[in-house]
Amino acid sequence: MGGAAKTVRLWLKATTGWLGRVFTPSATAWSAAALALFILWGLLALSFLFSDGSDRLTWEMALGVVGIYGVMALASGVLLLLVWLLALLKPRYRVALLLSLPPMLLLGLFTWGAMGGSIAALLTLIGLSLLFGSGAALTQRKAPRARRIGAVVFLAVGVGMLGLLAYGLVKAPADPNPALAGYHLRGATLALADPAKPGPYLVRTFTYGSGTDRRRPEYAGGVLFRSAPVDGSKLDVKWTGPGGWVRTQYWGFGPKNFPVQGRVWMPDTRRVGAPQGPFPLVLIVHGNHGMESFSDPGYAYLGVLLASQGFIVVSVDENFLNSSVADFVNPFAIRGGEENSVRGWLLLEHLAQWRAWSQDPRHPMFGKADMNRIALIGHSRGGEAVATANAFNDLSHDPDDATLAFNYHFKLGAVAAIAPVDGQHKLRDWPTPMKDTNYFVIQGSMDGDMTSFMGASQYSRASFSGAARAFKASVYVTGANHGQFNTTWGRYDSGLPFRLFLDPRPIMQPAAQRQIAAVYLSAFLQATLLGKDGYRPLFEDARNGAAWLPDDFLINNYADSDTQWLANYQEDLDPGTGSAPGVTLNGQNLSIWRETYIRLKFAQLGVPVAVLGWDDRVSPRKASYEIDLGASGLKVAQNTDLVFSAANAGVSSLPDRFDLKGKASDAKADARRPLDWSIVLTDAKGAEARLPLSHDQLLYPQIKGETRRFGAIDGAATSEVVLRRYRFPLKDFVAANPQLDPHSLRSIRFDFDRSPRGAIALNDVGLATAQ
Questions:
Q1: Residue 12: partners with Cβ closer than 8 Å, 6 or more residues away
Q2: Which of 7, 24, 241, 455 is deepest in the core (most CB within 10 A)?
Q3: What is the pLDDT of residues 451-503, one digit of tens each?
Q4: Is the predicted pLDDT of residue 149 greater than 90, yes or no?
């Protein structure tokens, strides 16, 4: 045996040596290959020179090609330098560096963006290397003195780099919103019941589901009612693709057998004399979380509250659609939210199950759910799912695969979203539409997951035709995060290791955050499903519910189908035309005037707005923006209010062409100041009445939310445009000038006379029925 093994080794050595000689290029071959690439380099340069198709060469064109190739040569030089530096490293360290660099960069990019993530990764890797390398060198007692001095220097540099990183991580954040110092939520609370207080009903709770769930005992032997599975294979093709077998292995089912299961809170009608229903039906669906860490129990605080007030509430189980580390068994099949159509479709399948129970005289739920009063509430990806369900509800077929027929047509009276995503799944590659639907969305400024107010995009797309009476509303909560709206998610909006770099210190207390959610969601359902319109002013201004809410700064926006819109900037491309017939728009001495789509942190508002700027350094004369209602004026009904939505635009009030030393620092200082201006109404006879914006409220700067530690290197935007609803009763203008005839308006003008400079986003200017 020994001789045979020796023979094999000699044969392998000879063979590999021969292969090496055959397939190792000679110096001549390397030179010829390089020459080919140099020739290609030159030919491409010539093609750039004659890119316009002419045979005329100018020196300006030559300079342009030098500029193009100069940039590319610089990039090549950087790459060559990196290769050279890597070649200088010892093999063991080179392997360790190249192994640790990708996960560190991934962690840094996810936390702080490209530049900040690179800085953090370099501080960590180089700092640790210098600390341990120089520390080990100092333990060598026989090392030369010069080398020991070098080790001390490197040790100091390593400690300094790690110290800088540690300081950035533990440093207490400065107040990002100094303009709110001393702010308190004060106002005249509506003379209605506190919507976050329990109602008169005792609450009964149970679960329904497959009865065979291998991971969830409450949906196995613990179910009160069994439900049949549904086939979602046409919608969830990714499950059945590569890697789907891992998910099937864990849950014991695939997309052909999705379970329909949820936990229920409902009024306990078993008491003697208690009303027997039917009760409005509310479905709540969670968003993406680790599928092994179940999310549906986290809305019990809402379920118990709403059930006590006379609603049937179901927290829908869709954990089997959530992400898992196990998905990375095939990294190329990772899902990024496109399964949100499945989440929305499953909600409609739950409603179909409730419809069947409600119509079956033999079932204990017969007549319990009022299928003419239904609401959907979704959190995170579930927030997009409820909008998708609303869109699917009245369709005959799936718009992306018409071989899948729909037959739902439920009476959806309300749709609400909690910190939703938007655009992860698009119908026909278009954003999800919404029409004549009561819609509400809530978002926190300290959301470490959905850091941009993506729900504002869906809000902006919600439209009214006048065929139904409906409203839409949003509330932006200073200090709220993503997870505390669900009690099982908590204070950190991502898992390890990323949660180590989220900053929980500025986040509000969980009880306060859920109090706000309870107030608004309960009031929304009571206004839309129970007809209690008296709660509507709460959605226009949190001060109307000050006694019910924590003392916090909330930004409300609101619009309804009853408002006559004068300018919502959707009619055409002309900045001089309004939305109502005969209305024109005029600007005087403005430094900025344009109608544009607003870019949020990482989303886009779905409709254009007007961006208006004024600056005393550009024009010392008064700047104004006028909405001219036409030569004959506008006949206005009694009890009418002027309404509009505005926000600090977060841009310099100086035009780009205006050069001023210190422009950037001035812009930052201006962005920290609240803005005020005058609103002037003119009637058909020329009488004017004037009120300051602060008659309602000053326009505060954009709310900043620094969700990451070491914010100095965070490359992500910390604030964005969040529009606030303003309302001015016309009777208040009459009080300012009794000569004004409010029933015959000629114009509405903004005189920017109370702040020397500023830039605002303006939208939804109209006339609404008085509260």
A1: none
A2: 455
A3: 999 999 999 999 999 888 999 999 999 999 999 999 999 999 988 888 889 99
A4: no
Strand partners, 282: 313, 375
Burial class (CB in 10 A: 0-12, 13-18, 19+), 514: buried
Query: Pick the residue with more confidence: 636 or 50?
Result: 636
54 falls in which pLDDT band (50, 70, 90)?
low
**What CA dihedral angle connects 647, 648, 650 and 654, to 10 degrees?**
130
Give the sign of the dihedral formed by CA 549, CA 555, CA 560, CA 566: positive
Identify the residue with better confidence: 285 or 497.
285
Higher pLDDT, 474 or 136: 474
Q: Residues 165, 128: contact at Cβ < 8 Å?
A: no
Q: Does the pTM of the predicted model rise above 0.70?
A: yes
DSSP characters over 476-524: EETT--SGGGSTTT-S-SS-TTGGGGB--TTSPPHHHHHHHHHHHHHHH
Per-residue pLDDT tens over the stretch 7-30: 666 666 666 665 565 556 778 877
Q: What is the CA angle 676-682-684, rounded to 5?
A: 170
The answer to whether 363 and 200 have CB atoms below 8 angstroms apart is no
Indicate the residue type of 556.
N
Percent composition of the chain: helix, strand, coil (DSSP 3-state, to 5): 40, 20, 40
Question: For residue 346, what are the contacts with CB-CB under 8 A and spacing of at least 6?
Answer: 230, 232, 258, 260, 285, 316, 318, 321
Provide the pLDDT for residue 306: 98
The Cα 359–Cα 725 span in angstroms is 43
Burial of 669 (0-12, 13-18, 19+ CB in 10 A): exposed
**What's the pLDDT tens digit per position in 641-698?**
999 999 999 999 998 877 665 555 555 666 678 999 999 999 999 999 999 999 999 9
Q: What b-and-e string marks burial along 308-344, b requiring 16 or more CB atoms within 10 Å of the CB? A: bbbbbbbbbbbbbbbbbeebeeeeeeebebebbbbbb
Half-sphere exposure of 708 (CA within 13 A, CB side): 24
* Phi, psi at 765, each rounded to 5°: -85, 125
Q: How far apart are CA 335 and CA 235, in angstroms?
A: 13
Q: Do 506 and 706 contact (CB within 8 A), yes or no? A: yes
Strands (E), 245-400: 262-267, 279-285, 312-316, 369-379, 397-398
Angle at 122 between CA 116 and CA 126, to 5 degrees: 160
Tokens of 509: 């207390």
Q: Which residues 6+ apart lie within 8 Å of 600 measured at CB? A: 452, 453, 454, 456, 457, 720, 721
Q: How many CA atoms lie within 13 A of 753 on its CB side?
A: 14
Both tokens of 328, joined, read 């990375």
Of how many residues is the chain composed?
Answer: 771
Three-state DSSP class for residue 66: helix
Quick one: what percent of the chain has pLDDT higher than 70? 92
| Whether residue 729 has pLDDT greater than 90 | yes
Whole-number Å distance between alpha carbons of 550 and 531: 26
pLDDT score for 409: 96
Of 413, 441, 418, 421, nearest to 723 (Cα)?
441
DSSP three-state, residue 127: helix
Question: For the segment 228-277, what is each residue's pLDDT rounded down to a tens digit?
Answer: 999 999 998 778 555 678 889 999 999 999 999 999 999 998 765 667 78
